[in-house]
Amino acid sequence: MALNEHNRRKFVAGMSRRISKLRDQSEQSLDFAIETMFQERTEAYLHVEQGLMEVDRMLGLVEGELEDITELTTAQRLESRLEFIEDRFEEFESEIRQRPRRRRHKINLFNFFKAAGGGGGEGEPTSVRGEIRSSVHAYEVLGVEFGSPLPVVTRAFRERAKKIHPDIRQGDRSSEPELRRIIEAYQFLKTDYFGGTASDSVQRPF
Q1: Fewer CB under 10 Å: which end of the chain, C or N?
Q2: CA–CA dist 95, 89 (Å, integer)
Q3: What digits encode the pLDDT tens for the residues 92-149?
Q4: How far is it, in rounded angstroms, from Cα 138 to Cα 144?
Q5: Is residue 147 left, alpha or beta, with left meaning phi > 0 and alpha meaning psi from -120 to 50?
Q6: Is the torsion defined by CA of 158, 107, 197, 59 positive or negative?
Q7: Alpha-carbon radius of gyration of the chain
Q8: Considering the entire predicted model, what is its pTM?
């Protein structure tokens, strides 16, 4: 399926933002590694230095292919490659900072319920395992056309969330898995595709 020019430009812009952000993060991580690892953890430093150089090389390859994107399936494959690079960077970042790997696109459902007026309670889920791995998938989950602007995405999210939220359904929690997916899809698009911030995604949506 071919991408129209508007959607193609939006995809390229979103990918370019992510590439630029990852490059900045990689440079900052390398600076931090030099300061904290070079003398006492030299072997580990050389490993992450080589790894971050490889990350930069792979980003260049993805960036070089962006302007030639014309098909939806090709765009999805290229985005998957960028996600792989982001995961690789997180591995090196975790080694530099000496901390467990952070899960990308993690969503706290308890906080969402609280922000939406649901309050939350004991035994309520506190996190959601990431399932949305691309903007194409996120648009599909929300039931909107790929490349639709943020106001359309937000409206679709609000309409669906209000229909299946436990508070609206007199406490019926059977639709929680679907609610989790649309929350994650909305957050993915808002943070990674439209360039918002993670804190924006847990504001009151109704």
Answers
A1: N
A2: 10
A3: 999 898 877 655 543 333 344 344 333 344 333 333 446 787 888 899 899 999 888 8
A4: 9
A5: left
A6: negative
A7: 19
A8: 0.56
